[in-house]
Design goal:
- With 170 residues, this protein is an alpha+beta fold.
- The protein is 27% helix and 28% strand.
- The radius of gyration is 16 Å and the shape is globular.
- The protein starts with 24 loop residues before the first helix and ends with a helix.
- It binds nickel (II) ion.
């Protein structure tokens, strides 16, 4: 089932999400629906709060647009960022309107700990593109969007565009 994605400036996107205590059939169904929604929108990641579930879970697939998929579910993820700064090239988000994209300074390496859908502990190091995606999705769990990382002048211009866009559509 395709789920509705919350769009900025929806204030619910600022919610700090709650840890998950156990995997339920409902959670498994939610994960399935989130993957369907993410692939349908040609996204590489989707966090639970984006579809109005304020729990610490995200799905991602750096190979979303390729033939061989690499879907991942991360429950209660914890990140340790390290290594050099890199610029994400034209980062975007399914919750940010007008197909807005911007470069964001991210870390090139992430040490990740999380649970999977069988409640196994995952622990691994990610580098480059997957590391950028997980930083972006993890931010969502703390109510942060990539546009919160860009320069204030650029942000003000974007917010102006969003206000004009909202006026046209109300
Ligand atoms: Ni996003």
């Amino acid at each position: 089932m395709l789920l509705d994605i919350l769009v900025y400036p929806d204030p619910r996107l600022k919610t700090v999400c709650e840890p998950i205590k156990e995997v339920t059939p409902e959670l498994r169904q939610l994960v399935k629906d989130m993957f369907e929604t993410m692939y349908d929108a040609s996204g590489v990641g989707l966090a639970a709060p984006q579809i109005g579930q304020f729990i610490r879970m995200l799905v991602m697939d750096p190979q979303s647009n390729k033939e061989v998929k690499a879907p991942r579910v991360l429950i209660n993820p914890e990140l340790e960022l390290y290594g050099e700064d890199i610029k994400s090239k034209a980062e975007g988000c399914l919750s940010v309107p007008l197909q807005y994209r911007a470069d964001v300074i991210r870390k090139n390496h992430v040490h990740l700990k999380a649970r999977d859908l069988d409640w196994n502990m995952i622990e691994e190091d990610l580098e480059g593109y997957p590391a950028i995606i997980v930083q972006h999705e993890f931010d969502h769990l703390n109510g942060i969007l990539f546009i919160d990382h860009i320069m204030s002048v650029k942000r003000a211009l974007f917010d102006g565009k969003v206000r004009r866009w909202q006026k046209r559509h109300q």
